[in-house]
Amino acid sequence: MKKYLIFTLSLLMFFFLTAIIPGFTQRVYSVKIGDYVLNIDTQKYRGKTIYMWQFWPEEEQSSIPGIRSGKQVREEFEKITGAKVQIVYTTWENYRPKLSAAILSGSGADVVYIGAGEKPTWMMKKMLIPLNKYINFKDQNLWKAVGFRESTLKFFTWRGQVYAVTNIYNDNVFPYVLYYNKEKFEMNGLPDPLELYKQGKWTWDAFFSIGSKLTQDTNGDGKIDQWAYATWAVVQPFLYTNDVEIVRYIAGKPVFAMDSPKAYRAFQAIYDMDSKYKMRPADWWNDPQGRFQKGITCMDYWGPWELTGMRQALGKKLGIVPFPKGPDAKKKSADMADDGAWAIASSSKDPELSALWLLYMLMPTDKEKEAIVKNQIEKVGGKENYDLLLDAATRAQIDPISGIPGFWDLLNQIDYANPAKSIKALKPKFQSAIDAILEGLK
Predict the structure, then answer these.
(1) Is-above-0.90 flag for pTM?
(2) I need a labelling partner for 96 at 20 to 30 A (CA). Which of 186, 250, 276, 316 fits?
(3) DSSP letter, residue 305
(4) CATH class assigned to 177-336+404-440
(5) CATH number for region 28-172+338-381
(6) Residue 318 parent element (H or E)
(7) How far apart are CA 290 and CA 172, in angstroms?
């Protein structure tokens, strides 16, 4: 009787384990996405723990029906592998110093979310691990399965090695865009920027010509109460859309490259936007998104994360288009790209498991991809806009300035009215700011 009871309990335990742990009776658990198959060893990582750092709370429930939340994806991975993925959440203000301290201490950080500010210092300090050893970036089926975002991989490639990745299946795949109020344009008999863009006529000259007509006194009291444009991203769009190279990497080291006629024309354009065309309010930095949504300004250049809020505020009046191109531009567009990406810290005790989790986390199912794309199309106002923005994303650029301490302060010292003379005078200081990074790494 006792032996029978033990046998029965053992049998029940076996069925319990096979029910709650995928792959308990199989060595390899396979996940097929498109033509790619991710094979996961169900025994190798049991009992191990990796730490994933981010500055937002873990997603409990997806906002898109039929899509697994971040928590659900993590729990699935934990059941398959028997490993634990511990989320380390800290606020944005404390994120970078705490994460940096954890990596340098040699423990407590595996998969980490980074931005442009970590390049090149974290690579040069060997705080991040090159991903090429664990991820086969030459596998085209893997590229399609994950949907690697090319601009991100390109930016975070250093000395031939990829250090950070993300995918296209989130709103941040779109570049920064110029939001505009269609109603304001129609009321003033002005051409639609999107139509100009399609015709190859959306240039700085067109932007300034239209903008000069949108700054108005709308109630006749003698005071300007409507402005054409405002944004927090003042400098970068003019630099990128005129093919300005800010920093050039030579043998993996950054070198100041902004002393050029293209850059002079970009800063002169910003000066003309205010002095000649009167497009911005004097306090342009004061809540540009809120002002645009209230109709106080007619255009705002900002990130894709604002799409939902902008659509809710303006509805069918909302227009979106890439930033206009400058006189030296050879590309159709060159907007700013979101810089967020996932990397593996050098403090990781198990980079192989970390890379496996990274792929699993960034690999939605085929049905989920369809739902995500459908949701993105709705947010941007239709398939045509979606295709246009995805095309623009292929030319988008990640801002390298934040990775160089002191660089922004020097940019603010440039005299926009005399940019050539000013940049030449500041050039040694710009290079010194770059050299300070290299000196600190010796």
Answers:
(1) no
(2) 250
(3) G
(4) alpha beta
(5) 3.40.190.10
(6) strand 318-321
(7) 20
